[in-house]
Please model this.
Amino acid sequence: MDGDGLFRTDSVTKVYPNGIRANDGISLHVAPGEVYGLLGPNGAGKTTLVKQVIGLLKPTSGRITLGAHDLVADPAAARQLCSYLPQAQVPIDSFRAREAIVLCGRVRGGGRASVERRADELIEALDLGEWRNKRGLGLSGGVKRLVGFAMVTVCPGRLVILDEPTNDVDPLRRRLLWEQVRQVGDQGAVVLLVTHNVLEAEKAVDRLAVIDNGRVIAEGTPSAMKARDRGRLRLQLMIAPGRDAPALPPFALRSTLVGRNMMTVIAEGDAAVGIKWAEQVIAAGAAEEYALSATSLEDAYLELTGHNSGVDWGLRGIGG
Amino acid sequence: MVAWDLADFRLYLPVLGAVLILQGAGFALGMGLLFSKMPEAAAVFLVTGAPVMNLITAGLIFEPQVVAEQRIRGSYEFLQSLPVPRSAAALAWYTVALGTALPAVALTLVTGEARYHLNLTVTPMVVPAMLLTCLTGVLLGLAIAHGITVPMAAMLASTTLIFVMFGFSPVAFPAAQLPGWLAAVNQWLPFGSMATIVRAALANGVASGVPRAYLVVAAWAAGSALVVAWAQGHRR
Model:
């Protein structure tokens, strides 16, 4: 392996011709074997960063390297070294599922026998057997997504970039997919996981960066990110349809409303008074149910960005 | 990449092949309906021009539409991220386009020759002439597909060129039939010259200025290749 195999971005800045600063001095480093999450709301600059890594866009300034390779100076090397699963579906309408996986492995330079063996392993591991010889045109979005993942990882580059890999995938196969993501890392690749799904990222990544407005606003392990909420709990209230959110109680540290879901962070010592307050709100008909749980990465993310993690949900921040 | 393209387009290539047959043989036979007895000179132009339309259309129409659809669906970037040299991808598509066009070319020639009782004299120069014509059509298509990033604009541009080829270029009729200024413009456009080099290899004494026509077509191929290389190598 040349160099240290590290994936690095050094002060990467991208300003589009229309003046929009999509990335603003992004510096990251990810070691081989790490699964690294890039989290951030829509328009944060994640996709722009990824397109610069794989050589489709050129940074206005800054460096992107993988080991000894300068990916900005040598986009052909970037294509060779990086495997990329885009957020959009892969174009496999005419392909049979296994054929698409094998052909992609062959295009990536894998030998026929090893690619076919690995394709069969992935089909088995992702529970895709029943669609093995079905054409892409007839596959559901979730199955297409899994086939796309297999295409990208059947003969992975040293940097594997997965943009929302679990979109449309059912919960059972999501687990299988995450196991495979971990295996790709264990085999020595750098895995860059781009996602909005904070809850899944919390379980899947070793470290992560939160990007907002083109900048890294936080970086660390999921546990370190959650450390700010140590000694705190999440009190979640489902607001009744047609009712306004209740006024915040004085013990609430911060609160966010996502659709009808009101998430309030409280101190552990306020658990009893929090439950009492929630029961009063429900008794008054303003809410349907409540849940008290440990805080998650999502709470830290919401505090950092002031955004919700759902792609299509409406959001009104009401505190914090 | 040829295997990839064949698998990717397997649902559409038979349709494209059928369309090309309809275009070539249909055009050659259909135009004959305008005459109670087609003059031989006209028949030769028609029958040697229709296959040129096949060769051009295969490259010029399909790729811009496919790439436009990839851009709309968001899969363009996935394909561009594959570790395939751009030249290898272009060569693969050229192979597929040529393989799709040649059956239509053969059928068009056989049908036209039989219908108008012609005796075409095919020379070995038909090989470079048809290879270069198809290559230029493919490169023009790739230049439009990758050079024009707005999908609808790319599709309109390729469709417009097809209409220019049909109606305003001396492909299936002599340049002398055009207004002087349009004939002069066509001296520098590729379609008439493509027809000249193919026709010279299919029939004796009906094509003139063949060396110049080769130069014009080659220049368009080279220019289109430069545009393709720029469009695919250029990073915003």
